[in-house]
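@channel anyone free to eyeball this complex?
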Amino acid sequence: MNDNRTLPRTLFLVVYIVFALLPIYWMINMSFKTNEEILSSFTFFPQHFTWDNYKTIFTDASWYSGYINSLIIVAINMTISICVALPAAYAFSRYSFLGDKHLFFWLLTNRMTPPAVFLLPFFQLYTTLGLMDTHIAVALAHLVFNVPLAVWILEGFMSGVPREIDETAYIDGYSFPRFFLTIFLPLIKAGVGVAAFFCFMFSWVELLLARTLTSVDAKPIVATMTRTVSAAGMDWATLAAAGVLTIVPGAIVIWFVRHYIAKGFAMGRV
Amino acid sequence: MSTIKPVNQKAWWLVLPVVVCVAFSAVLPLMTVVNYSLQDIISPERRVFVGTEWFAAAMRDEELHSALWRQLTFSLAVLTVEIPLGIMLALSMPAKGWKASAVLVVVALSLLIPWNVVGTIWQIFGRADIGLLGAMLQKMGFDYNYTGNATHAWLTVLVMDVWHWTPLVALLCYAGLRSIPDAYYQAARIDGASRFAVFRYIQLPKMRGVLMIAVLLRFMDSFMIYTEPFVLTGGGPGNATTFLSEYLTQKAVGQFDVGPAAAFSLIYFLIILLLCFILYNWMQRVGTADKEGAGHE
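replying in thread with the prediction:
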């Protein structure tokens, strides 16, 4: 398909990428400016180029520990989400059982509650359990939206793997755990990659729950950022620098899973 | 898939961990909300059971009705723009090589920015005096001002959402497209199929599963949108961008009315649930009809 068809597509892609990058460019641009310059004049490049905003973040423990806390929270959340979602997705894709269709849809309904609704109940629940201001509290709270999503995505990939593979393995005398880990899992690597990326993404950017459940020790970066809004006005430049730095870990994650995404959902889905 | 799945009740054991996790992190809190919604909480010690009074009050609330309509219009606008745009983007993205990797990373960038930062960046980005978007529109002769003009504010929130979330649709569709074997395209070429026919009969059916996830996700998430418009416009000007979540938070946090706020949240939840259920069943029916239709050809 290398005829005149590709030109409009390339053009569209270029236009979209420019649209996608302009706000990001503006953020990077802001992160090298001073607050006075951001608010006083319109400039395509920083007139008084400064690293100060980044220096603030890397030298102030309350700033950089936010990144570390975020990474710990996201790692715990990703691990739990994927580990519980894998067997469930397998059950949904391979067997029919009492209430399976309803249960499958019910899972997704838990994603439909506005996080604001859960603020007070979560606060009470985790205070009672003595888990306030711990990484595990936020990671558990984020399961609400990540587990259903992981089950749905993984089920899609697993349904694409022919059932004959399972049957052959049983005839060859594989036990279920051994079959699952050594034969099945490698076949749906792509799905695990995609699901892990989405779990990472949704947990990384969630603000309301994370801010409510932490105060000092486990405060993630998104919550730390809110303090740039103060009585003295907004610290735009530091916020922009912190924003640029929040993209970096995610960009690294997507770089690692890019082959999995490009490999696509296994064929035969629906 | 034509074969029927074998019945196996033991599969429940595999699903159990998920049910436990979700019950702990969703059902338990939800029960607390139900509990609040039936009481008038004057102080932690003094509570009065009021039955369905808060629900009745919420149903009569005029402001809630207008917030709901604003929300519905916004979510529909989000779907009509983001779904086709995401599909087009997925179709245009290169399939192999370093270009594919680079485009994937660039497209995914906007998803990784925390929501409050998204709002803040667009706040500056859209200002006519110091922001790129505002300044460009001003140069082109539009009298653009998102803080003063309700239509401009609404459109800015929509464009921001399109910028922020179209990549989610695109990434899912892209993953779906990559699963189509080359043999399908070769067969289509031999048949002399038009580009539209290739899209309609090969690419679209193969994307159905991922499109379903994308449509449901975008619908429910746009229905719960809070942080971005809150930071960008604060719900204004007037209440042009006061969506449901915004209104709920104003009630719950601003007025400390736990009971009415809980009743409101439950109604909110039920509306999303109902709409998603309709959407889900409709998409499943369309998909099944499609498959049967293809079988007869």
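from a first look: Chain A touches chain B through 106 residues (CB under 8 Å).
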